[in-house]
Amino acid sequence: MTETGGLETAGGERLRRWRLVLGGEGDGTGRALSGRDAAMDGALAALYGGGVGGRAQGERSAGLGASAPRVARWLGDIRTYFPSPVVQVMQRDAIERLGLSALLLEPEMLEAVEPDVHLVGTLLSLHKAMPDTTRETARAVVRTVVEQLEKRLAARTRATLTGALDRSARISRPRHHDIDWDRTIRANLKNYLPEHRTVVPERLVGYGRASRSVKKEVVLCIDQSGSMAASVVHASVFGAVLASMRSIATRLVVFDTAVADLTDRLDDPVDVLFGTQLGGGTDINRALAYCQSKITRPADTVVVLISDLYEGGIRDEMLKRVAAMKGAGVEFVALLALSDEGAPAYDREHAAALAALGAPTFACTPDLFPEVMAAALEKRPLPVP
Predict the structure, then answer these.
(1) Strands, E, within the chain: which ranges?
(2) DSSP secondary structure, 302-327, as one string
(3) Euclidean distance between CA atoms 167 and 316, whole angstroms
(4) Of 152, 215, 300, 323, which sits most exposed with the smallest number of CB within 10 A?
């Protein structure tokens, strides 16, 4: 291929892409679409046409309406033409922009969608309105997403937390591979020999092996207001993983203006999710009061509040409870979100007040969560992003 030919090909590809983005005959590209490109353009037009989202008016006016067969065909089309991450974004936009939530109550629609965390959140908000014919299909969709998350997160979480628990049991006669060299050197600095530029260790400090008894207690306190849907999904998966570890006693509490203890469902995170009720108000103080009443070993307990901190209850009482728990020796962490979505909307005044009490308050990704929990269990500074 000549250099000129290569430039023409690259220029043509740029015009093609701009034509798909702009979506109109009068968009200035002078490019006509045919075949697969025309089909892709039609799928985009059905969602973003009619001048919505900056797209040209004119030909892009197909729409999806409220026709279940048409939506089902469109869902199949976008899975054919676009990669999975793009499909998930388009599905989310269709639900939010075109009000298609009601159509998800039909089994054939659920079978056509691409499962993801946001779809699970939508299904959980609708599940009380679902007809019996849809419930099992919805559970299958939710289980698919949960299993994907468990596969991604479980092994690393167990390994990280097991290491943290092992390090909490120090021994003085460790085997070589169990020696904590940092602590050993610090414990033997008085034995430094300048002429040899080395430390002679009289006492070795090592990591103990985890026993089968419960070492730590973890309380996950989860805000189930509608804005926290993705965090609820991730927290439920992590709750199930923690509950599977014998050396950690895990309690999972969800709340809006009422409080529900879902600890007895932790063997199946899908049951946990269907035990939630996304939406409604928020009473953090009431939820923390319940959690506080269940703490029996404060010095060995980590409480993780997952909330955007928009409090509908008694603010001062909420802060007093956090201060009391910390004063008793509880490690308290407030996560503004537990998701991959980036910086969330949250109550900055409440976040600042918790931080002033010494309670780390920040948004956390699922991949960072195991490290955060490990640091909390070891009572060392958290890896705040």
Answers:
(1) 170-171, 192-193, 198-199, 206-207, 216-223, 248-255, 259-261, 301-306, 331-338, 361-364
(2) EEEEES-----S-HHHHHHHHHHHHH
(3) 37
(4) 152
381, 228, 293, 275: CA torsion to nearest 10:
-130
Mean pLDDT of 357-372: 96
CB count within 10 Å of CB 248 equals 21
The average confidence (pLDDT) of the chain is 81
Would you give the DSSP letter of residue 369?
H
pLDDT for the residue 187:
75
Inter-CA distances, 320 with 143, 288, 327, Å: 39, 10, 10
Edge-to-edge strands, sheet with 248-255:
259-261, 248-255, 216-223, 301-306, 331-338, 361-364
CB 155 within 8 A of CB 242: no
Q: Which pTM does this prediction carry? A: 0.71
pLDDT in tens, 109-164: 788 888 889 889 888 887 777 888 888 889 999 999 999 999 999 999 999 998 88
Separation between Cα atoms, residue 66 and residue 64, nearest integer Å: 6
In one letter, which amino acid is 77? Answer: D
Residue 69, token pair as written in the block: 């067969």
Residue 331's nearest CA partner among 244, 207, 216 is 216
Lowest mean pLDDT among 30-34, 38-42, 169-173, 262-266: 169-173
Instruction: Inform me whether the pLDDT recorded for 266 exceeds 80.
Output: yes
C-alpha of 210 from chain center: 29
Residue 44: other Cβ atoms inside 10 A: 21
Report the largest interatomic distance among the alpha carbons of the chain, rounded to a whole angstrom: 86
Q: Can you give the length of the chain in residues?
A: 385
Radius of gyration of the chain (CA): 27
